[in-house]
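Note to self: keep these together.
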Amino acid sequence: MKTVRDVMTPNPAYCTPTTRVHEVARLMVESDCGSIPVLTSEEDRTPVGTVTDRDIVCRLVAQGRNPLDCEARDCMTTPCVTVPVDSDLNAARDLMMQHRIRRVVVVDENAECVGIVSLADIVLETGDTNVVREVSEPIEEPARIPKRETEPA
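Structure:
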């Protein structure tokens, strides 16, 4: 069976906790992706979280926060789920199903980010479409955003 290394996207775009959210969004556009790993620093490539396009919308925009005033740390998902680079694809698939996520950060023997593997990568390689159903099942009831009260007429 192939390993994560065989199907991952190597050297993905990344940010740090202090990267401005508009820069994270620009990285998503330039890399044509919806998830950016958040690494400790430029020198220390240890993943500490991820920022997805959904994180920006749900944790900032929907809460009335201006993304132009925020940093990655303000909306990133933590902890960062990772998979070792030499793991088989089943290990990555199992992590995605367990955590209900569509992408996993790939790390080397030093726990540093070397890639990212997506649900699509696994499905294209294995043909296992059941994983899509499993990952898409909601973990819990979605958060409800309180309606803004209107002023009396």
